Amino acid sequence: MLFALRMLLLSVHFVVATLAGLTVCILRPFNPENTPLCARLYALPALRILGLRVRLDPSVVADQPRPAVIVANHLSNHDLFVFGQVVPHRTVSLGKQSLKWLPLFGQLYWLAGNVLIQRGNAVRARQAMTQLNDTLHARDISIWIFAEGTRSHGRGLGPFKKGAFQLAINAGVPIVPICSNNYVRQMRLNRWHSGDVILKALPPISTEGLGADDVPALMARCHAEMAACIAELDRQASSEPATDRNATPA
Description:
The chain is α/β, with parallel strands linked by helices. It is built from eight helices and seven strands; from the N terminus they run H-H-E-H-E-H-E-H-E-H-E-H-E-E-H.
Protein backbone atom coordinates (compact mmCIF):
# COMPACT_ATOMS: atom_id res chain seq x y z
CA MET A 1 0.00 0.00 0.00
CA LEU A 2 2.77 2.44 0.97
CA PHE A 3 4.67 1.60 -2.23
CA ALA A 4 1.62 2.33 -4.41
CA LEU A 5 0.92 5.58 -2.58
CA ARG A 6 4.52 6.70 -3.02
CA MET A 7 4.47 5.95 -6.74
CA LEU A 8 1.24 7.92 -7.14
CA LEU A 9 2.59 10.91 -5.22
CA LEU A 10 5.91 10.72 -7.07
CA SER A 11 4.12 10.76 -10.43
CA VAL A 12 2.09 13.82 -9.46
CA HIS A 13 5.18 15.55 -8.10
CA PHE A 14 7.14 14.79 -11.28
CA VAL A 15 4.49 16.45 -13.44
CA VAL A 16 4.20 19.48 -11.16
CA ALA A 17 7.99 19.90 -10.92
CA THR A 18 8.32 19.58 -14.70
CA LEU A 19 5.70 22.26 -15.32
CA ALA A 20 7.30 24.57 -12.75
CA GLY A 21 10.73 24.00 -14.27
CA LEU A 22 9.41 24.62 -17.78
CA THR A 23 7.96 27.94 -16.67
CA VAL A 24 11.35 29.04 -15.33
CA CYS A 25 13.25 27.81 -18.40
CA ILE A 26 10.88 29.48 -20.86
CA LEU A 27 11.42 32.78 -19.06
CA ARG A 28 15.22 32.40 -19.11
CA PRO A 29 16.11 29.71 -21.68
CA PHE A 30 19.56 28.06 -21.54
CA ASN A 31 20.56 29.94 -18.39
CA PRO A 32 23.31 27.88 -16.68
CA GLU A 33 21.51 28.19 -13.34
CA ASN A 34 18.43 26.43 -14.71
CA THR A 35 19.76 22.92 -14.25
CA PRO A 36 20.70 23.25 -10.54
CA LEU A 37 17.35 24.92 -9.82
CA CYS A 38 15.29 22.32 -11.69
CA ALA A 39 17.31 19.49 -10.13
CA ARG A 40 16.33 20.73 -6.68
CA LEU A 41 12.69 21.15 -7.71
CA TYR A 42 12.68 17.44 -8.51
CA ALA A 43 14.94 16.21 -5.72
CA LEU A 44 13.90 17.76 -2.43
CA PRO A 45 10.17 16.85 -2.42
CA ALA A 46 10.89 13.47 -4.05
CA LEU A 47 13.27 12.43 -1.27
CA ARG A 48 10.51 13.07 1.24
CA ILE A 49 8.02 11.10 -0.81
CA LEU A 50 10.40 8.16 -1.28
CA GLY A 51 11.39 8.08 2.39
CA LEU A 52 15.09 8.18 1.55
CA ARG A 53 17.23 9.63 4.31
CA VAL A 54 20.29 11.44 2.96
CA ARG A 55 23.52 12.38 4.67
CA LEU A 56 25.69 14.91 2.87
CA ASP A 57 29.40 14.81 3.57
CA PRO A 58 30.70 18.40 3.96
CA SER A 59 32.80 17.88 0.82
CA VAL A 60 29.65 17.73 -1.33
CA VAL A 61 28.33 21.12 -0.29
CA ALA A 62 31.76 22.79 -0.33
CA ASP A 63 32.66 25.09 -3.21
CA GLN A 64 33.95 23.09 -6.17
CA PRO A 65 36.34 24.35 -8.85
CA ARG A 66 34.70 25.71 -11.99
CA PRO A 67 34.82 24.96 -14.82
CA ALA A 68 35.17 21.24 -14.18
CA VAL A 69 33.92 17.86 -15.31
CA ILE A 70 31.89 16.29 -12.50
CA VAL A 71 31.80 12.50 -12.58
CA ALA A 72 29.27 10.52 -10.51
CA ASN A 73 28.31 6.86 -10.23
CA HIS A 74 24.99 5.97 -11.88
CA LEU A 75 22.73 3.63 -9.90
CA SER A 76 19.09 4.00 -10.92
CA ASN A 77 16.39 6.30 -12.24
CA HIS A 78 16.17 7.70 -8.71
CA ASP A 79 19.59 9.36 -9.21
CA LEU A 80 17.74 12.44 -10.47
CA PHE A 81 16.40 12.85 -6.94
CA VAL A 82 19.46 11.61 -5.03
CA PHE A 83 22.07 13.74 -6.81
CA GLY A 84 19.71 16.56 -7.78
CA GLN A 85 20.06 18.29 -4.44
CA VAL A 86 23.85 18.71 -4.82
CA VAL A 87 24.25 19.88 -8.44
CA PRO A 88 26.63 22.87 -8.13
CA HIS A 89 25.86 26.34 -9.42
CA ARG A 90 26.37 26.90 -13.17
CA THR A 91 26.44 23.17 -13.89
CA VAL A 92 24.75 21.39 -16.78
CA SER A 93 24.61 17.71 -17.63
CA LEU A 94 25.33 15.57 -20.67
CA GLY A 95 22.48 13.50 -22.10
CA LYS A 96 21.25 11.63 -25.15
CA GLN A 97 19.70 13.74 -27.91
CA SER A 98 16.64 11.48 -27.82
CA LEU A 99 15.77 12.95 -24.41
CA LYS A 100 14.73 16.13 -26.21
CA TRP A 101 11.62 14.40 -27.57
CA LEU A 102 10.25 13.12 -24.27
CA PRO A 103 7.01 15.05 -23.63
CA LEU A 104 7.53 17.99 -21.28
CA PHE A 105 10.63 16.60 -19.52
CA GLY A 106 12.63 16.54 -22.74
CA GLN A 107 11.80 20.15 -23.54
CA LEU A 108 12.68 21.11 -19.95
CA TYR A 109 16.00 19.27 -20.19
CA TRP A 110 16.86 21.08 -23.41
CA LEU A 111 15.73 24.55 -22.30
CA ALA A 112 17.59 24.14 -19.00
CA GLY A 113 20.80 24.33 -21.02
CA ASN A 114 21.92 20.71 -20.76
CA VAL A 115 24.12 19.31 -23.53
CA LEU A 116 22.55 16.78 -25.91
CA ILE A 117 24.69 14.45 -28.01
CA GLN A 118 23.82 11.87 -30.63
CA ARG A 119 25.50 8.80 -29.18
CA GLY A 120 24.92 6.62 -32.22
CA ASN A 121 26.72 9.11 -34.47
CA ALA A 122 30.41 9.24 -33.55
CA VAL A 123 31.16 12.22 -35.79
CA ARG A 124 28.39 14.41 -34.38
CA ALA A 125 29.19 13.31 -30.84
CA ARG A 126 32.83 14.37 -31.29
CA GLN A 127 31.74 17.69 -32.77
CA ALA A 128 29.47 18.34 -29.79
CA MET A 129 32.25 17.49 -27.34
CA THR A 130 34.72 19.72 -29.21
CA GLN A 131 32.32 22.67 -29.03
CA LEU A 132 31.83 21.95 -25.36
CA ASN A 133 35.57 22.36 -24.69
CA ASP A 134 35.34 26.08 -25.45
CA THR A 135 31.91 26.48 -23.87
CA LEU A 136 33.13 25.35 -20.45
CA HIS A 137 35.51 28.31 -20.25
CA ALA A 138 33.55 30.86 -22.26
CA ARG A 139 30.40 30.44 -20.16
CA ASP A 140 32.17 29.53 -16.90
CA ILE A 141 30.18 26.33 -16.45
CA SER A 142 30.83 22.79 -15.26
CA ILE A 143 29.34 19.65 -16.76
CA TRP A 144 27.95 16.64 -14.89
CA ILE A 145 28.52 13.24 -16.52
CA PHE A 146 27.67 9.70 -15.40
CA ALA A 147 30.88 8.18 -16.73
CA GLU A 148 29.59 4.60 -16.69
CA GLY A 149 27.07 5.56 -19.33
CA THR A 150 24.41 3.24 -17.88
CA ARG A 151 22.80 2.38 -14.56
CA SER A 152 24.51 -0.18 -12.33
CA HIS A 153 21.41 -1.02 -10.23
CA GLY A 154 23.65 -1.46 -7.20
CA ARG A 155 25.94 -4.04 -8.76
CA GLY A 156 29.00 -1.89 -8.15
CA LEU A 157 30.89 0.73 -10.14
CA GLY A 158 30.94 -0.26 -13.81
CA PRO A 159 33.59 0.48 -16.46
CA PHE A 160 33.92 4.11 -17.48
CA LYS A 161 33.40 5.57 -20.94
CA LYS A 162 36.22 7.77 -22.23
CA GLY A 163 34.19 10.87 -23.10
CA ALA A 164 34.26 12.62 -19.72
CA PHE A 165 38.01 12.20 -19.39
CA GLN A 166 38.83 13.21 -22.94
CA LEU A 167 36.69 16.32 -22.43
CA ALA A 168 38.44 17.23 -19.18
CA ILE A 169 41.90 16.85 -20.71
CA ASN A 170 41.04 18.72 -23.91
CA ALA A 171 39.46 21.57 -21.95
CA GLY A 172 42.21 21.57 -19.34
CA VAL A 173 39.75 21.37 -16.43
CA PRO A 174 39.80 19.12 -13.35
CA ILE A 175 37.72 16.02 -12.72
CA VAL A 176 35.51 16.26 -9.61
CA PRO A 177 34.27 12.79 -8.52
CA ILE A 178 31.01 12.66 -6.54
CA CYS A 179 30.04 9.31 -5.01
CA SER A 180 26.93 7.74 -3.56
CA ASN A 181 26.67 4.48 -1.68
CA ASN A 182 24.80 1.70 -3.47
CA TYR A 183 21.51 2.81 -1.94
CA VAL A 184 19.40 0.67 -4.28
CA ARG A 185 20.64 -2.48 -2.56
CA GLN A 186 18.78 -1.63 0.65
CA MET A 187 15.99 0.60 -0.67
CA ARG A 188 12.56 -0.78 0.29
CA LEU A 189 9.81 1.57 -0.83
CA ASN A 190 7.15 -0.35 1.11
CA ARG A 191 8.77 0.77 4.40
CA TRP A 192 8.29 4.17 6.03
CA HIS A 193 12.05 4.70 6.10
CA SER A 194 13.02 3.19 2.76
CA GLY A 195 16.80 3.50 2.89
CA ASP A 196 19.89 5.59 3.57
CA VAL A 197 21.94 7.59 1.09
CA ILE A 198 25.39 9.07 1.74
CA LEU A 199 26.98 11.47 -0.76
CA LYS A 200 30.64 12.46 -0.79
CA ALA A 201 32.85 14.46 -3.16
CA LEU A 202 36.47 13.44 -3.63
CA PRO A 203 39.32 15.95 -4.09
CA PRO A 204 39.52 17.30 -7.66
CA ILE A 205 41.85 15.45 -10.00
CA SER A 206 43.96 17.84 -12.05
CA THR A 207 44.37 17.30 -15.79
CA GLU A 208 47.07 19.95 -16.16
CA GLY A 209 49.78 18.83 -18.57
CA LEU A 210 47.90 15.68 -19.64
CA GLY A 211 47.32 14.63 -23.24
CA ALA A 212 45.31 12.07 -25.17
CA ASP A 213 47.71 9.26 -24.19
CA ASP A 214 46.97 9.91 -20.53
CA VAL A 215 43.24 9.19 -20.79
CA PRO A 216 43.47 5.48 -19.74
CA ALA A 217 45.57 6.30 -16.68
CA LEU A 218 43.24 9.15 -15.69
CA MET A 219 40.21 6.86 -16.05
CA ALA A 220 41.89 4.13 -14.00
CA ARG A 221 42.84 6.56 -11.22
CA CYS A 222 39.36 8.07 -11.02
CA HIS A 223 37.70 4.64 -11.10
CA ALA A 224 39.93 3.29 -8.32
CA GLU A 225 39.36 6.31 -6.07
CA MET A 226 35.60 6.25 -6.60
CA ALA A 227 35.35 2.48 -6.09
CA ALA A 228 37.20 2.75 -2.78
CA CYS A 229 35.01 5.67 -1.69
CA ILE A 230 31.77 3.87 -2.62
CA ALA A 231 32.86 0.77 -0.69
CA GLU A 232 33.49 2.91 2.39
CA LEU A 233 30.12 4.67 2.00
CA ASP A 234 28.42 1.26 1.76
CA ARG A 235 30.04 0.26 5.05
CA GLN A 236 28.91 3.49 6.69
CA ALA A 237 25.35 3.13 5.42
CA SER A 238 25.07 -0.41 6.77
CA SER A 239 26.50 0.41 10.20
CA GLU A 240 25.49 4.01 10.98
CA PRO A 241 22.12 5.80 11.08
CA ALA A 242 21.93 8.74 8.67
CA THR A 243 21.01 11.26 11.34
CA ASP A 244 22.85 14.53 11.46
CA ARG A 245 22.03 18.12 10.76
CA ASN A 246 22.66 17.64 7.02
CA ALA A 247 20.25 14.71 6.78
CA THR A 248 17.00 14.84 4.84
CA PRO A 249 14.62 12.71 6.93
CA ALA A 250 11.76 10.71 5.52
